[in-house]
Write a structure and sequence with these properties.
The structure is a homodimer.
Chain A: H1 4-13, H2 20-30, H3 33-46, H4 57-69, E1 73-76, H5 84-87, E2 95-100, E3 109-113, H6 120-135, E4 139-142, H7 148-156, E5 161-165, H8 178-187, E6 189-192, H9 205-215, E7 218-221, H10 229-239, E8 243-246, H11 254-264, E9 268-269, H12 273-284, H13 303-313, E10 319-320, H14 321-328, H15 332-344, E11 348-351, E12 355-358
Parallel strand pairs in A: 3-4, 3-7, 4-5, 5-6, 7-8, 8-9
Antiparallel strand pairs in A: 1-2, 2-6, 10-12, 11-12
Helix pairs in contact in A: 1-3, 1-4, 2-3, 2-15, 3-15, 6-7, 6-12, 9-10, 13-14, 13-15
Chain lengths: ~350, ~350
């Protein structure tokens, strides 16, 4: 059963305009999710907007029941069981629902991703590589999509594999993977950031990809066309300071060109499982315990003045929060607080690299 | 017609136990090839061996006539017309015979080499790449072998291409390339280090490969199995400080594994002609005029003492010449002279990286 703090966290993350970054800052500022929930209406009013819709306790209980019916349970960032590597990734999900063998999260992980329309040769290669990495003790993380993802999961099923879905835990997609996903919810692990009932929309895929990259010591791309989603996963892995690897192919095959470009950009060229182990080894020792990610300064917050200053400094173009702090002359804590208020009022957009802008109307 | 100095150089390089390094040192020591020829019997006697066989002037004239009959002419290291890039390579040939358009040696060059049993796709890719690099103004250097070499030459025939053969200028190998080689002796350029009549033996291939690597700003390997000759050419290019490039392929194809390994070792991954141009550009500005490669110290040579010291320090394992100089306490010039004498007496082996050893009996 989900405890009171868990239900409060669930209500907080499901509140409109509360994303992972805002969630983490609210928790850091107010100590508990419940205290943050209590403060939100006032914060939003100060930010100049109407209060966001906060799910009721009953809503949260209903979601928790649905996760349980799907055979799942929750993992909360900063609480025991949450995967340490993912916790280190910027914007990690505050709440995950997971079904299956959660002990897989404690073992060394490699992500394998690639084209949905992969060549038969690449599918065979991915499956065999997953078998071998499995036998070497690695857990294979992927996205339960067609093509390379499916091959990677199937190859690793006996040794341990984690599938991250863009939908809720109770939705199977693509339909032909129903058997695989059901089996992974018992012998492997299926992970979702979305509430049950969520269909896999295109807009959820980048968020799913960041979880794949965040869960793994390194990401291997097996076959990928230029501008494909697998390359986004690889870029996220690089952003998180993880190893990026790619399997080369003929420049005449468009499905290899994305991987070849990754290698040109510095990814490690992979031909064998031994190549993966060699590339991953330096990262395996760097796994640290979860971090808080954000700390407010202890000084008293001069909230009202800071809010006006920050509003003045913000525009439609993303600027680094550090720059706003510097230009405002206000304390870091006061600026962060002002940004929180604007965020909750629906007036702020947060971008990669700690940048913020006024939300476009 | 070959002049007297040219004929003397020809006699010197065709003397048994005179390789490119010894040739260069003799020329530096004695000023002219004729003076070196005159000194050889005495030097060999001091080195403790019998005098090597020196071809007669008539022998040299016969060779020069044969080169002329084959439509060729000579280029001598250190004299006008000798390719500047090749002159910079350690152990460059003192004498080349060439047939065709020698102005091609003045233009920017890229070597393209690869498997004789290349896949149809790789052959097509190599030919198309050669066409495009040609159109961009690059002269394509290769080895006139089957497979990738042939495709590279054919693609570059209109724009300019240089073929380096392991045989004499008058021998065609492989037989099916007779038409191509004849055409290149008119529209392109065919280069040989061997005297006319020399059949292409396996032992000549590494020497041929060093000329390919030495003539080019960079070497691109298109398809190559592990441990193939193309990888030797790539390693020589790296030794000469040139750009090394490789076209990737599926790890499932053994003919791609050598290229993939090159990329793992730092070669630039190539997918397009633009990739080659980008990789080569920094090297194009580094072309310098021919260097002498070796300078003897001006101090008086205490030859006899040095010879005894050097004989004592030499063993069957290769040691750097610098170390012998240091350990002997003799001048650099005296040690080099002693090594020359041992070399001409057939008692010295010279190895890569300026190392020497006593010749195994």
């Amino acid at each position: 059963m989900t405890d009171a703090d868990g239900l409060a966290r669930l209500r907080l993350i499901r509140t409109s305009s509360v994303g992972p970054v805002t969630f983490t800052q609210l928790l850091a500022r107010f100590g508990t999710a419940q205290a943050a929930l209590d403060a939100i209406p006032d914060l939003a009013r100060r930010g100049g907007g109407s209060a966001p819709r906060i799910p009721s306790l009953a809503d949260a209980e209903r979601e928790a029941m649905a996760v349980q019916r799907a055979g799942g349970t929750y993992l909360f960032a900063g609480r025991p069981g949450y995967p340490a590597l993912l916790a280190e990734a910027e914007g990690a999900p505050p709440v995950l629902s997971v079904a299956g063998d959660i002990s897989l999260l404690m073992r060394p992980t490699v992500a394998m991703v690639g084209a949905r329309n992969a060549s038969a040769a690449a599918v065979r290669f991915a499956r065999q590589l997953a078998v071998e990495l499995s036998q070497l003790g690695f857990v294979i993380v992927s996205g339960l999509a067609r093509g390379i993802d499916t091959a990677a999961h199937r190859g690793a099923l006996d040794g341990g594999t984690i599938g991250v879905v863009a939908s809720g835990l109770d939705i199977v997609y693509p339909p032909e993977n129903e058997g695989l996903q059901r089996e992974m919810q018992v012998r492997g692990l299926v992970v979702s950031e979305q509430p049950p009932g969520t269909e896999p929309h295109a807009r959820h895929f980048p968020a799913r990809n960041r979880i794949i990259a965040g869960l793994a010591l390194g990401t291997l791309v097996v076959e990928a066309a230029p501008k494909s989603g697998s390359l986004i996963t690889a870029r996220l892995a690089a952003d998180y300071g993880r190893e990026v690897m790619a399997v080369p192919g003929s420049p005449l095959d468009p499905r290899a060109q994305g991987c070849n470009q990754l290698i040109r950009d510095g990814a490690t060229l992979i031909q064998t499982a031994a190549d993966v182990v060699e590339a991953i080894r330096p990262f395996a020792s760097q796994v640290r315990s979860p971090t808080q990610g954000f700390e407010l300064a202890p000084e008293p917050i001069n909230g009202h003045d800071a809010l006006a200053l920050v509003e003045e400094l913000l525009g439609p173009s993303p600027v680094p929060v550090d720059e706003i702090i510097r230009l405002s002359g206000a304390s870091s804590g006061a600026v962060q607080m002002a940004l929180l208020e604007l965020d909750l009022a629906g007036r702020l957009d947060r971008h990669a690299g700690g940048k913020v802008s006024f939300r476009g109307s």
